[in-house]
């Protein structure tokens, strides 16, 4: 029986989807609901005649408990874990639950209040309201100060509570995934428990090689190739999984660390004679955020919580405050400074008479409207409306807003950092081209290749006499034989294994025996390999069987060709090539096949004049190019090579160098057979989306854990690098001197895209951080390959620090979480590999192409609307404050309020709130125009909608209108003070309603309703305001003409200025709307 490797695995990646449930055997009776990616399991392969179970060393991780240090989990330490005996653990470990909530039941209220009052804006109003408990400072009823502050806090707490409930429900859904527990003790997942996992999609698949299994790690490190994992040998003789609980054994594991490429541990069985002690390495492990491709896992929990690799490679989420909020906070500080200055001037004009220090505080309270308390609540409600609009946009279905406090950030992005696998690409490889030098076959001419392969195996093997064969036949036979040799080589030089599954009609054993096509799937360490083998199957030469020592191919006529695998040289990042030596069982011929990157194969194959040119042409089309070659060996040549190869592998010193030297002795003067071009399928509309972002002034950086060649091909294919741009591939550097020389070489290039590996990037950032970032920021595009998750976050942080610009990070996997959380805006793409990135992001989309509309339309509108709303709220408060200043200065600088009680509250609520807030529906251009002309987005990057210039303009407008209204009322009133209040307040309300109409770019029916509703509310409330307003006076003609004149004088000049500006200096968008 076959058995599988010991792994460390991510439960969420395995079973995040409902269609992949967990099965349990008869011995596994306890099934509980837990978060699926949160624990570490150690397990081993079993081998028996009755069962075929796979036992693995598995690490399942979850986010750390916030009180972990209180639970005795402050330090990372090695641990000894006894199988089936979690009670023997030496220390406490993190719980196996996920918790993404910011607050709990006890910390919600104090936490929300602290987050609100830690900002100057809200703290100022709290102190203002508290001051009214002092009799000497009281200016009116307490409710005039506490009601507005209470409304702001209640709305904020409701918003926070809604987000916390949503977060709780998401966590609960993930925590409710199923796992099966082999041991019978306890109810909670703890270290030492055995776990049994199986994937239904390949539940009946046999492993690719005895005792091994493939592992997908793209959600952890971004690499798309599958990893081979090997078994822990000393448990393979146990008859059943339950026997793991009967033996006396334990696992020693190293202390948790961030290195995802190494692991040190041992497995010890003490009841053996003698005791067995076996080492464990990365080859026996399966990390969190990885996925098993087939098989079953039975394991013991090793790591949980914050001790997992994926969690340690994830930075702590930060509370994001938008740049817009910081700018508004800065403006409120300026307004507060103006408030202090005005108060001091008023007291100074009184010559600091009497208790002048109390007068200063009274004036601070009197002019407190200069800093508008309604600004924060208006902006927060506006953000909620913007978030709702994003969720309800039918053109970007499935988009989720998880951080409703920063939608306007989307309108000012300067750098977009994106993952590759699953974000830009689908990770689905498609064979596109076969090139033989003199002839090339594309997708539209594969039938010719198929006919050549068919003829090669159906025609007689002997050639026709030369005298009887016409010239055309010779040429045709030559091409046919070359095509056949190329297809045969591609079908042999790989590490792909065909696996047969039961399909409901045919069981596994029968399918494997008869090579059933409908039951066969391919497993390999790279999707490129699978695409090549699938292509050879499509043209007639099918891989039907493989084990460690042999391979079987089926010809178009159904004949089975048997090949013995003599040697296998796997692909490595350093060698950039792989090779295989096979013996054809029918002829006895020994052939060495090799394929690899053109940069290394150019020096291995025989001289030719087309390889370099055609490789360049195919690479420019975004294809991954592989060069395929072969070399025939005699029996004597192979025996000589084998003897030297075995001797080299037995060396203790410099083994790798000696083995490489022996292999290189074969890699000379090989026959060039063909070039293959494979395309990694891009996500839908990636190219036009990237073009939109580029035209909008956004620089796109691609950060991936994949290989350099793969990343470069994808960058070209996605048009991240345009055709007229050069690419500078940063040479690998390890020292400061090498980095200095390479940076100097790069400095001499202009308008050039940069491609750099993670190791070289680390060296450059260590010694030349400033110089490197300066050069990289000048590049039109940057590709960073082989990046660790923490490196991605570091790049985002450096961009923020060095440029001061806003960044947006886009990713779909667990290895992108750190980058997403570090960026000013994090966007998660819900891909096939789970929802880790989506749950951690501020915004979640279903496809990369939705990013264009999210930024160009919603981001732009949110920022412009927020800027207009904030400045209008400031204008509304400055108007009434200016009127108060004029009133106080006329009446001998008395600290007496102009409006009291309900008037002051109603002014900023029912009388003007709805029209002002309706500005969140305003837009300058249609969404189709914003998408068609992304250059409009570029104007926002300079922050012009909300700047000191626009702020000063609104301040001047407020001072002008407030002065006109107040002086007009003083000039035109007759004999009673209440007439001043009636005239000025009515003129103020009408002025605000007209100014909203002046500000609006595109009318919405709700805006008209808001204007009419507010006016109706004011007219209706006049009946109840007899305490402040003379009801009989407002019905006279005198009142009406005075209010009309004051309102026209305050608004008409601004309407004229707006018309002249649009006439002689129109904004960019007006040209597009006309």
TrEMBL record:
Catalytic activity: ATP + H2O + phospholipidSide 1 = ADP + phosphate + phospholipidSide 2
Residues annotated as signal peptide: none
Transmembrane segments: 143-162, 334-353, 359-379, 873-893, 899-921, 951-971, 977-998, 1005-1025, 1031-1057
One GO MF term attached to the UniProt entry: ATPase-coupled intramembrane lipid transporter activity
Record's bilayer topology term: Multi-pass membrane protein
Annotated localization: Golgi apparatus, trans-Golgi network membrane; Membrane
GO cellular component, one term: endosome
Domain P-type ATPase C-terminal: 839-1066
Pfam families: Hydrolase, PhoLip_ATPase_C, PhoLip_ATPase_N
Biological process per Gene Ontology, one example term: retrograde vesicle-mediated transport, Golgi to endoplasmic reticulum
Claim: Zinc-finger is one of the keywords in the record: no
Residues annotated as domain P-type ATPase N-terminal: 85-145
Keyword annotations of the record: ATP-binding, Golgi apparatus, Lipid transport, Magnesium, Membrane, Metal-binding, Nucleotide-binding, Translocase, Transmembrane, Transmembrane helix, Transport
Binding site for Mg(2+): 419, 421, 812, 816
Annotated active site: 419 (4-aspartylphosphate intermediate)
Keyword Transport among record annotations: yes
Residues bound to ATP: 419-421, 529, 571, 595, 624, 704-706, 786, 792, 815-816
Cofactor(s) named in the record: Mg(2+)
Enzyme Commission number, as recorded: 7.6.2.1
Family assignment from sequence similarity: Belongs to the cation transport ATPase (P-type) (TC 3.A.3) family. Type IV subfamily.
Protein name (record): Phospholipid-transporting ATPase
């Amino acid at each position: 029986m076959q058995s599988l490797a010991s792994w460390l695995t991510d439960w969420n990646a395995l079973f995040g989807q409902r269609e992949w449930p967990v099965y349990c055997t008869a011995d596994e009776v306890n099934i509980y609901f837990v978060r699926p990616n949160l624990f570490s399991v150690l397990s081993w392969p079993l081998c028996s005649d009755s069962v075929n179970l796979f036992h693995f060393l598995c690490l399942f991780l979850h986010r750390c408990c916030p009180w972990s240090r209180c639970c005795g989990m402050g330090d990372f330490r090695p641990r000894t874990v006894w199988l089936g005996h979690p009670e023997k653990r030496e220390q406490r470990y993190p719980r196996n639950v996920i918790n993404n909530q910011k607050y709990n039941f006890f910390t919600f209220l104090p936490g929300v209040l602290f987050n609100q009052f830690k900002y100057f804006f809200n703290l100022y109003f709290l102190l203002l309201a508290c001051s009214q408990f002092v009799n000497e400072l009281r200016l009116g009823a307490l409710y005039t100060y506490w009601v507005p502050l209470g409304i702001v806090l209640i709305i904020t707490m409701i918003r926070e509570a809604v987000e916390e409930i949503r977060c709780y429900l998401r966590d609960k859904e993930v925590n409710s995934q199923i796992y099966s527990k082999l041991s019978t003790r306890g109810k909670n997942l703890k270290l030492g428990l055995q776990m049994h996992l199986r994937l239904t999609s390949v539940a009946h698949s046999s492993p690719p090689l005895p005792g091994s299994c493939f592992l997908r790690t793209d959600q952890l490190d971004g690499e798309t190739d599958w990893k081979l994992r090997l078994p822990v040998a000393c448990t393979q003789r146990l008859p059943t999984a339950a026997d793991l609980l009967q033996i006396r054994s334990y696992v020693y594991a190293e202390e948790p660390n961030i290195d995802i490429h190494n692991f040190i541990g041992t497995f010890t069985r003490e009841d053996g004679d003698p005791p067995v002690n076996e080492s464990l390495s990365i080859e026996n492990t399966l990390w969190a955020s990885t996925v098993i491709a087939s098989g079953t896992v039975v394991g013991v929990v090793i790591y949980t919580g914050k001790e997992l690799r994926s969690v340690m490679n994830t930075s702590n989420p930060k509370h994001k405050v938008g740049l817009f909020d910081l700018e508004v906070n800065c403006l409120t500080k300026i307004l507060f400074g103006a408030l202090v200055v005005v108060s001091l001037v008023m007291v100074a004009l009184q010559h600091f008479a009497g208790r002048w220090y109390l007068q200063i505080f009274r004036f601070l309270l009197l002019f407190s409207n200069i800093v508008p308390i309604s600004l924060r609540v208006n902006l927060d409600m506006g953000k909620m409306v913007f978030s709702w609009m994003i969720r309800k946009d039918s053109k970007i279905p499935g988009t989720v807003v998880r951080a409703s406090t920063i939608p306007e950030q989307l309108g000012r992005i300067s750098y977009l950092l994106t993952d590759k696998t699953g974000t830009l690409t689908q990770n689905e490889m498609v064979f596109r081209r076969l090139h033989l030098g003199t002839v090339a076959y594309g997708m539209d001419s594969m039938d010719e290749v198929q006919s050549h392969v068919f003829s090669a195996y159906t025609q007689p093997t002997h050639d026709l006499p030369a005298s009887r064969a016409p010239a055309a036949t010779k040429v045709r036979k030559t091409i046919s034989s070359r095509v056949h040799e190329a297809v045969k080589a591609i079908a042999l030089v790989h590490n792909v294994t065909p696996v047969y599954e039961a399909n409901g009609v045919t069981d596994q054993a029968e399918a494997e025996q008869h090579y059933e096509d409908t039951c066969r799937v391919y497993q390999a360490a790279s999707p490129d390999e699978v695409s090549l083998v699938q292509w050879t199957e499509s043209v007639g030469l099918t891989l039907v069987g493989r084990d460690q020592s042999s391979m079987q191919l089926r010809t178009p006529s159904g004949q089975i060709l048997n090949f013995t695998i003599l040697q296998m040289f796997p692909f490595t990042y350093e060698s950039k090539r792989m090779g295989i030596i096979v013996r054809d069982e029918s002829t006895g011929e020994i052939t060495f096949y090799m394929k690899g990157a053109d940069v290394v194969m150019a020096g291995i194959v025989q001289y030719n004049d087309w390889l370099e040119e055609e490789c360049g042409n195919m690479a420019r089309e975004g294809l991954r190019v592989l060069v395929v070659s072969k070399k025939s060996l005699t029996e004597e040549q192979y025996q000589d090579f084998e003897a030297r190869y075995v001797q080299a592998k037995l060396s203790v010193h410099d083994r790798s160098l000696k083995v490489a030297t022996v292999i290189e002795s074969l890699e000379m003067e090989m026959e060039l057979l063909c070039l293959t071009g494979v395309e990694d399928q891009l996500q839908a509309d990636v190219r036009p989306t990237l073009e939109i972002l580029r035209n909008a002034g956004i620089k796109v950086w691609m950060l991936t854990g994949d290989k350099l060649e793969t990343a470069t091909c994808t960058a070209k294919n996605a048009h991240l690098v345009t055709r007229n741009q050069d690419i500078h591939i940063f040479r690998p550097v390890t020292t400061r001197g090498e980095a200095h020389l390479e940076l100097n070489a790069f400095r001499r290039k202009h308008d050039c895209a940069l491609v750099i590996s993670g190791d070289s990037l680390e060296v450059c950032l260590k010694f030349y951080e400033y110089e490197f970032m300066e050069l990289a920021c000048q590049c039109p595009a940057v590709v960073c390959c082989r990046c660790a998750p923490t490196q991605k976050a570091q790049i985002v942080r450096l961009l923020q620090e060095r440029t001061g610009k806003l960044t947006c990070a886009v990713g779909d996997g667990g290895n992108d979480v750190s980058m997403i959380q570090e960026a000013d805006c994090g966007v998660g793409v819900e891909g096939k590999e789970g929802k880790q990135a989506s749950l951690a992001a501020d915004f979640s989309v279903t496809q990369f192409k939705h990013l264009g509309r999210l930024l160009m339309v919603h981001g732009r509108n949110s920022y412009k609307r927020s800027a207009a709303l904030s400045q209008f709220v400031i204008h509304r408060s400055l108007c009434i404050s200016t009127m108060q200043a004029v009133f106080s200065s006329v009446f001998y600088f008395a600290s007496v309020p102009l409006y009291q009680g309900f008037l002051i509250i109603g002014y900023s609520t029912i009388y003007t709130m709805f029209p002002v807030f309706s500005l969140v529906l305003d837009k300058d251009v249609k969404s189709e125009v914003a998408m068609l002309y992304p250059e409009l987005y570029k104007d926002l990057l300079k922050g012009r909608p909300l700047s000191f210039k626009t702020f000063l303009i609104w301040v001047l407008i407020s001072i002008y209108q407030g002065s006109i209204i107040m002086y007009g009322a003083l000039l035109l009133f007759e004999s009673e003070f209440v007439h001043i209040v009636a005239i000025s307040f009515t003129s103020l309300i009408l002025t605000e309603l007209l100014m909203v109409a002046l500000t609006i770019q595109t009318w919405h029916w709700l805006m008209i309703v808001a204007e009419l509703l507010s006016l109706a509310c004011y007219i209706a409330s006049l009946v109840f305001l007899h305490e402040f307003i003379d009801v009989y006076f407002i019905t006279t003609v005198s009142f009406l003409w005075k209010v009309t004149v004051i309102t026209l004088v305050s608004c008409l000049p601004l309407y004229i200025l707006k018309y002249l500006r649009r006439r002689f200096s129109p904004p960019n968008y007006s040209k597009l709307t006309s």
